[in-house]
Description:
Helix content is 37%, strand content 20%. The chain is built from 18 helices and 17 strands. It has helices at residues 2-7, 35-50, 70-84, 92-99, 112-123, 128-132, 145-154, 181-192, 210-220, 223-226, 251-276, 285-298, 304-310, 388-391, 433-437, 444-454, 463-480, 499-506; strands at 25-30, 58-64, 102-106, 134-138, 169-173, 200-202, 234-242, 311-317, 319-321, 324-326, 344-350, 360-366, 373-380, 398-404, 408-417, 423-432, 490-492. The strands form three sheets. A nine-stranded mixed beta sheet has the order 16-15-14-13-7-12-11-8-17, with helices on both faces. A hairpin with a 5-residue loop joins β15 (408-417) and β16 (423-432).
Amino acid sequence: MGRDDKKQGNSVARLDAGRKTPKPCTIVIFGASGDLTGRKLIPALFHLFSDGQLPEQFRVIGFARRDKTDESWRAELKAGVEEHSRPPKREAAIWEAFEKNLFYHRGDLTDAGAYQSLAERLADFEDASLRENLVFYLAISPTLFVETVDQLHAAGLLKRQNDESAPWQRLVVEKPFGQDLSSARELNEQLVKHVRERQIFRIDHYLGKETVQNIMMFRFSNALFEQLWNREAIEHVQITVSEDIGVGSRGGYFEEAGTLRDMMQNHLLQILSLVAMEPPVSLEAEAIRNEKVKLLQSIRELTLDDVARQVVRGQYFAGGSNGDTRQGYRQEERVDPESNVETYVAAQLFVDNWRWSGVPFYLRTGKNLPLRASEVRVQFRPTPNVLFARQADLQPNALTLRLQPDEGIFLRFNGKVPGNSMGIQPVRMHFGYDSEFGAYTPEAYERLLLEAMAGDATLFIRRDEVETAWQIVDGIRAGWNKTPLSNREFYAAGTWGPEAAEDLLARSGHKWHDPQPVS
Length: 519
Ligand code: BG6
């Protein structure tokens, strides 16, 4: 379909007017020895560099405790890029040109001297933009966020930006942003002591994903669907983010976090807000974020009883088939053998606004499910019970936004089975990103780093947004109130979650639609 359209001259409409471009700057990565730096940040920067998307002048300084030199850090990063980069084949000469911009700075995050020497190092850069326009990327333990920011401020490296034309410093803060509403508020208070809100870029890497960005474009550039995007036409919406692996080596972190905090508070609520928000007044960051916050604020508050009825937790036990055996959560490294921490959450939420009144939104996410897939499924209302529907149980129309992998959009409708008899069968129309646009879609971190350098906060979480999301999640935690998991909340690793999650939908006459591998 797409290829023919291109032949017929369908051209790309460019929407870059007013888009900010990345400016010359230095990115200081705190946590330079960590997994995120080697696996995501540096490969992303390298891709941007090879595609000519970075500003002409840029530097990256890795700040960490281990003893390394610029050369040894570069060699380590090169190996990481070879392993994690896609598309994997890049000219050696491009890496050589790129690595000249990478520097390692050894230091302890709690040592004021390390920030002084960082300042001296920056002062050596010949270009003023590289000395003064600074992105501080906090890829460190959240317990060190405040200390690091205080130290940066004390060393004179981080200043409140009151004047748009002045040199700028920005903070990019990785998740988790707080543990609950009160800790998130406290963290926000600490950060805004030194900088303005617009200097803070809170990461949710799902917002950098191509298909997540497409949700808004799909909704607001197609009259066909937006006309139907409301309670009149839609019966319910399902958002599934499933992972096919367990917690692996992250047991220690997971015991503190659990799936509600790790996935629901951020990624799923972000997807929900994009799917359900009202059209923003413009494409400006604040206009979009205003609508997202409004949507989160419209989610009906759950009483303790509602939590018992509308939210299901789960935890995987050992399971698997055909030689693919997976261990249970309680047997994972650094996990309490009697842990009650959830590795699965499903919830029925209602958005109490004009558009969505009475429409259930089902959200679910879990570790060790049968397959890695993220999907939004919009289930339309059935036809009236006349004509064909009177004679047979017809499947209602459904639209699926497949966010990952095999990114695409499917529309299901009914069609006549060819032949003399009257048979009706659901059929699917399928748009696939790969077949339409080719295989390479940029990694989420490429887009996010670029936007942070450009100072566009659209794809980052605003203060009121993160706090509202915590409020929703805190309500759920209060409902669980440390009670142990019930028998119907355990699921075998490699299955679609606990039985209690099936009951949750069955009570409203609905059923989960499990993502399928795309052939
Ligand atoms: C992270 C969570 O934010 O998202 C992880 O901490 C999870 O637990 C990951 O595995 C999933 O991200 P993606 O991009 O692989 O869907």
